[in-house]
Specification:
The chain has about 575 residues and is α/β, with parallel strands linked by helices. The chain contains 17 helices and 27 strands. It has a domain of about 100 residues: ANL, C-terminal domain (GMP Synthetase, Chain A, domain 3). An eight-stranded mixed β-sheet has the order 7-6-5-3-4-8-9-20, sandwiched between helices. Strands 12-13-14-15-16 form a five-stranded mixed β-sheet, with helices on both faces. A five-stranded antiparallel β-sheet has the order 18-17-19-21-22, with no helix packed on it. It comes from Paractinoplanes atraurantiacus. This is Long-chain acyl-CoA synthetase.
Amino acid sequence: MADERPWLAAYPEGVPADIDEPARALTANLEGAVERFPDRIALDFLGATTTYAQLGDQVARAAEALRLSGVGPGDRVALILPNCPQHVVAFYAVLRLGAVVVEHNPLYTADELAHQLADHGATVAVCWEKAAATVAATAERTSITTIIGVDLTAALPLIKRLALKLPLPAARKMRDEMRGTLPGGTLLWETMTAEAPPIDASIPGPGVDDTALLQYTGGTSGTPKGAVLSHRNLVANAEQSRVWVPGLRDGGETFYAVLPLFHAYGLTLCLTTAVRIAATIVLMPRFDAGMVLDAVKRRPPTFFPGVPPMYDRLAAAARERGTDLSSIRFSFSGAMPLPAKTVETWEALTGGLLIEGYGMTETSPITVGNPMSERRRAGSIGVPYPSTYVRIADRDDVTRDMPAGEPGELLLKGPQVFSGYWNLPEETEAVLLPDGWIRTGDVAVMSDDGFLSIVDRVKELIITGGFNVYPSEVEDVVRDHPDVADVAVVGLPSERTGEEVVAVVVAAEGATVDREALVKWARERLSGYKAPRRCEVVDELPRSQIGKVLRRQVRDDLLAKAQ
């Protein structure tokens, strides 16, 4: 393949055209950080700190505890955890055994979890106490036989753990938010890991081509399926992300993990890339502007990955409080378009750079980013990462490239591209071309100098607050309501979350749809970010000649109605 990469001219000094081929598994990143920076703070969780030496020891003990529980090479282990130290430890402990991490949202309902758990066939689930009962409720539909409960409060500073025992409303509220009742037979993570010795060094670890992670995504069809990511994929994307930011200092950065680690974006930047450079990771169990600004005073961030609404809320809160954010040199935004106004406000407040990037779960996930320099370009997702190639292809004939400036389907190729979907060869064949290119399903335009802009989305997924919502999944729930005959779920622009989920329904014969009641009903059956924010009632839905509901027309009709 000819090395025609016009975008290389946009690379800042020090960013290489290509990265070295990964030679060791992802676990080597942690081993290297422990060896080089043992006394560096690895994790900060609401003030409780863990050094890299301590993290390495905790991972070794957790790996042995899981091994004694029957976890071995190739086994899938479900992690159902918010951001917390135990999440980081469990992630690397599973990998140390040559087993496969499967990340899940801890706020999922039993129905949402059951499909994924049954699909990958894990027998062991490490989960937050508040999610343990949900996992137990899937027992008859999945292979889970061992549930290991994690107490978030065990990772708090001692003074905060003691404060939780006080008979005060604030303490009671925090206890209720962090603790949960465990079903009978649940094992205790804290007990297991405290009692286990470190794993014997003679026990083999994973190879660079072994599967490291199954990350569920709706892809182009909307049906959640597991993207198979190898150690090679994840190491490559961590290294690509590292070299993309000239000036990152090994052992000298502080990353804020406000993005969820169970999401591919948060996992790569806040976990694998951060550990690769022995950064301090400040873990937030959820995004809260006040919590973030409290942490800034304690441990100022230098690198802040997020989504646009986070930057807007933090900027407003920081101005109100008078909090100094000038320690933040680098910020990276993804998952939804980044408004120019957000960039202007954030950069004025921090004095650092805020750039936009692009990726997908199937590519580990980051493939494209604006240069971390004055060459960044507003309205563009940027240029391809090192060792990454792109094509803008004719959507009807992907062997034909479109001329510069003409829209076409964005195709990608690089070491971060996955090997396929778990047990779905036909779905894999639909997106992975024989020569290694992946079809993104997004329509893009590339300028003469290699900058890319997304102009349309073939995939009809909705991105709200940085999370993917698959319309068919929401529609299946709403359609079960007795007053609903048909439904189309679409995303409409929202200043607060990027897009908001809207259900457009047709009433069942003889029924009247109570819109507010229907929204409440859906929220009881779906995670909060998936549930429709509002409902509209129409006489009929537009359909194609073969009877398929035309979601795009539904969306356009709603937008026209709002004008």
